[in-house]
Amino acid sequence: MLNKKAEFEVLEQDIAQVAKALSHPARLSILRILAKEKGCMCGDIVDLLPLAQSTVSQHLKYLKDAGLIKGEVDGPKTCYCLNYEAIQNFKNSLNEIFTEIESLSCESDCC
Amino acid sequence: MLNKKAEFEVLEQDIAQVAKALSHPARLSILRILAKEKGCMCGDIVDLLPLAQSTVSQHLKYLKDAGLIKGEVDGPKTCYCLNYEAIQNFKNSLNEIFTEIESLSCESDCC
DNA sequence: ATCTAATATCGTAAATATACGATTTAGCGA
DNA sequence: TCGCTAAATCGTATATTTACGATATTAGAT
Questions:
Q1: What is the CA B75 to C1' D2 distance in angstroms?
Q2: Cα of B45 to nearest chain A Cα, Å
Q3: What is the per-residue pLDDT across B33-46, written as a single tens digit (0 to 9) for each?
Q4: What separation, in Å, do the N-terminal and C-terminal C-alpha atoms of chain A show?
Q5: Which residue among B8, B22, B101 places its CB closest to the CB of A87?
Q6: Residues linked to residue B69 through DSSP beta bridges, in sequence order
Q7: In angstroms, rounded to a whole number, what is the distance separating the alpha carbons of residues B52 and A90?
Q8: Burial classification of residue B2, based on how many CB atoms lie within 10 Å of its CB (0-12 exposed, 13-18 middle, 19 or more buried)
């Protein structure tokens, strides 16, 4: 199958990638847990979610690849934290698009 | 495969669903086109995107199912418009989660 | 040196998304 | 009525995501 994603604007590609990372409730839940728990929760996330350890690890990788979290290996453990800068950047990009959309409000003759 | 999405919070499920609709550059592009073009563009979207008609139609359906756009059938044509209310709702929900995340900023001992 | 606990990775199965061409549907105009 | 145009839907191929169990990896503790 041909992948056409590269043919769109970079801003659109960037937002799409982060939106994809936010497109599963488990990953949104993980972000909230990481914000709530002091000292950067690691494996305890598994205890808080109805998912297997390997699945949680997979979701964490997904979030890390999207840049939304950082992970620091510490012996056999790994410490995950939110990447506030990346979250802020996403918020800004999304706002950029949303305000553009709202300001261009079409005076439609139909719906 | 077991689908575990239903086991998460409704807020998380709702945001995830809209985020998924925003997770492809073609769909973000469509939203911008709908905002820009007066009179609610319909088939001309196809001319503006590097995708086949059937693929664009599929993306439009995806956006409509997520509630982000409305479509009004008018003879053989269909007129699509943004659903500003839904977009506003999503913005609010996302802000809710993001401000929660930011206010809970963890004082971590690692990253 | 070995055991153990915490994670990551591998292999795999099923579900969903992405893309296309071909076909169907619907109403308009000749 | 017949074709035309616009759009939706179908069928299909491929890619990606989601989920799990099993296995590998890593470093501290015994």
A1: 18
A2: 14
A3: 999 886 577 788 99
A4: 35
A5: B101
A6: B82
A7: 30
A8: exposed
- Note whether A106 contacts B23, CB cutoff 8 Å: no
Domains of chain B: 21-104 (1.10.10.10)
A93-100 own/partner pairs: CB under 8 Å, 24+ apart: A93/A11, A93/A14, A93/A15, A93/A18, A94/A15, A94/B94, A96/A11, A97/A11, A97/A15, A97/B28, A97/B31, A97/B32, A98/B87, A98/B91, A100/B32, A100/B35
Which letter does DSSP use for residue B43 in this model? T
Give pLDDT, residue A42: 78
pTM for the structure as a whole: 0.93
Residue matched to tokens 């609610």: B40
C-alpha neighbours within 13 Å on the C-beta side of residue A57: 6
Contacts of B65 (CB under 8 A, 6+ apart): B21
pLDDT tens readout for residues A27-73: 999 999 999 886 677 788 999 999 999 999 999 999 999 999 999 98
CB A80 within 8 A of CB A69: yes
Mean pLDDT of B49-59: 97
| Contact between residue A46 and residue A80 where contact means Cβ atoms under 8 Å apart | no
Specify which residue's alpha carbon is closest to the C1' of nucleotide D12. A1
Q: Which two tokens stand for residue B19?
A: 């985020």
**Other CB atoms within 10 Å distance of the CB of residue B28:** 25
Task: Give the minimum alpha-carbon distance from B24 to chain A in angstroms, rounded to a whole number.
Answer: 5
